[in-house]
Amino acid sequence: MEKQVEDRQRRKGWIRFLKAIAGIVAVSFVLARTQVMAQSTAQISGVVTDQSGAILPGVEVKVTQTDTGITRSAVTNETGLYILPNLPIGPYRLEAALPGFRSYVQTGIVLQVGSNPVLNMLMEVGQVSETVEVQADAALVETRNTG
What we know:
This protein has two domains: 1-39; 42-135, Immunoglobulins (Immunoglobulin-like, Sandwich). It has one helix and eight strands. The chain has one helix at residues 2-39, and strands spanning 41-50, 60-65, 71-75, 81-88, 90-97, 103-111, 121-123, 131-135. The longest helix is centred in the first third of the chain and has 38 residues, at 2-39. It is rod-shaped and about 95 Å long.
């Protein structure tokens, strides 16, 4: 009888141990997956100004991932700043538009894992139908010191 009680307690101990191990493995998997997902995106930000250096609030900024056609957009705030976070890595086209200014287009942007390029734009006064196009051929890398 004593041996049966001892065996049951031993089995319960093993079951608790295995449940604890399974919990640790599950948490580790979730954390690893979150880390991988966090590293597979990038961000584009910048400030939009006119030819005189004045900031331009209210500019509609749009990026399109050229491989997939996925688009994200933002509007510059009162300091001319725009931020487009959580962008999947890959090639992009950046566009900006504001009534009374020429449209701005930049192609050849390639976002890499963890890159956060700052792409400032200079918009020229002109007709909306006019476009200033900029071609960026190199892959973008983080050039700011975050330390």
